[in-house]
């Protein structure tokens, strides 16, 4: 008998997610080199976890799956168009069933892989925040739970880098992975944070978001950001509380730091933002 996902608000919207189709072989592009920094971190025997890297935009994509569930339901956080073939071939190789392709926000520096994934596996549902104003199959907001098998991610609204930024945090329950894991997008980076100078960004809002939604998590919570430019792969809430050179400061100092970053605009911003507002399907953006 087919065991359905837990039905919560999100799964009700996505009732197709509970029907499992046979795995379809995915063509593997030879031009996409594997750039996997993959390892398993969770003490939970159920969670399959991989951190994947796209080197041009220094973006991390995360693969999570409930490997103990008979259908091995999986999700991708922040897939990149250039590495979709690599990610889907890994998912196929591991015998996983991709259910959700999720974004933490509308990215400005690369095109999301979500639209491409949906064109290859039609029953995958795209997920983004309601506040992002982007097109997706499912819209989430603060407090929503996204189930995959017996595991879930909780949604925390963390605006500031963009208006619609969210952080996905693994569940707070004894049968969920320990320590917890927070996928912070560009809200909190390792020893840094997302810039706040476009897309509805606000340093005041970012400071409040990180302090109220991320720094309140247990100190052993693992921080997995959407980017790293220095070669770091993971941090913890405890480490960032101590060593983050921006967010350990008081709010006024933080705002001053952010106002003086003097970063040049991302090279792809004019292509990426319009495309990502329609799930990364570039033809619809023009
Ligand atoms: N040089 C890169 C863009 C680098 C950049 O601006 N990164 C963003 C996140 S992607 S919009 C950021 O918030 N950086 C914060 C920081 O302190 O570096 C490009 O041209 O794409």
Automatic annotation (TrEMBL):
GO MF annotations in UniProt: metal ion binding; sulfur dioxygenase activity
InterPro entries: Metallo-B-lactamas, Mito_Persulfide_Diox, POD-like_MBL-fold, RibonucZ/Hydroxyglut_hydro
Subcellular location per the Swiss-Prot or TrEMBL entry: Mitochondrion
Ranges of residues in domain Metallo-beta-lactamase: 58-227
Names of the cofactor(s): Fe(2+)
EC number(s) given by UniProt: 1.13.11.18
Pfam families found in the cross-reference section: Lactamase_B
GO BP, sorted A to Z: glutathione metabolic process; hydrogen sulfide metabolic process
Catalytic activity: S-sulfanylglutathione + O2 + H2O = sulfite + glutathione + 2 H(+)
Keywords: Acetylation, Dioxygenase, Iron, Metal-binding, Mitochondrion, Oxidoreductase, Transit peptide
GO cellular component: mitochondrion
Superkingdom in the source lineage: Eukaryota
UniProt key word Iron: yes
UniProt entry tagged with the keyword Nucleotidyltransferase: no
Family: Belongs to the metallo-beta-lactamase superfamily. Glyoxalase II family.
Protein name per the record: persulfide dioxygenase
Organism whose genome encodes this protein: Lupinus albus
């Amino acid at each position: 008998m087919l065991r359905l996902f837990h039905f919560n608000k999100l799964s009700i919207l996505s009732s197709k997610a509970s029907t499992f189709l046979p795995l379809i072989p995915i063509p593997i592009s030879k031009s996409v080199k594997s750039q996997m920094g993959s390892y398993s971190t969770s003490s939970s025997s159920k969670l399959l976890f991989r951190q994947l890297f796209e080197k041009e935009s220094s973006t991390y994509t995360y693969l999570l799956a409930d490997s103990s569930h008979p259908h091995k339901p999986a999700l991708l956080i922040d897939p990149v168009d250039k590495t979709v073939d690599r990610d889907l071939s890994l998912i196929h190789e591991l015998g996983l069933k991709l259910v959700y392709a999720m974004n933490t926000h509308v990215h400005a520096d690369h095109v999301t892989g979500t639209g491409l994934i949906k064109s290859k596996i039609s029953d995958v549902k795209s997920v983004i925040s309601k506040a992002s104003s982007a097109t997706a199959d499912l819209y989430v907001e603060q407090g929503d739970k996204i189930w995959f098998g017996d595991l879930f991610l909780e949604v925390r609204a963390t605006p500031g880098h963009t208006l619609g930024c969210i952080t996905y945090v693994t569940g707070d329950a004894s049968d969920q992975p320990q320590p917890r894991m927070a996928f912070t997008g560009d809200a909190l980076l390792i020893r840094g944070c997302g810039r706040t100078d476009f897309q509805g960004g606000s340093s005041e809002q970012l400071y409040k978001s990180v302090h109220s939604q991320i720094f309140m998590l247990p100190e052993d919570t693992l921080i997995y950001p959407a980017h790293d430019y220095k070669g770091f792969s993971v941090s913890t809430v405890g480490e960032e509380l101590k060593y983050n050179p921006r967010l350990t400061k008081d709010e006024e100092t933080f705002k001053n730091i952010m106002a003086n970053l003097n970063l040049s605009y991302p090279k792809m911003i004019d292509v990426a933002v319009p495309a990502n507002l329609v799930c990364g399907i570039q033809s619809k953006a023009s």
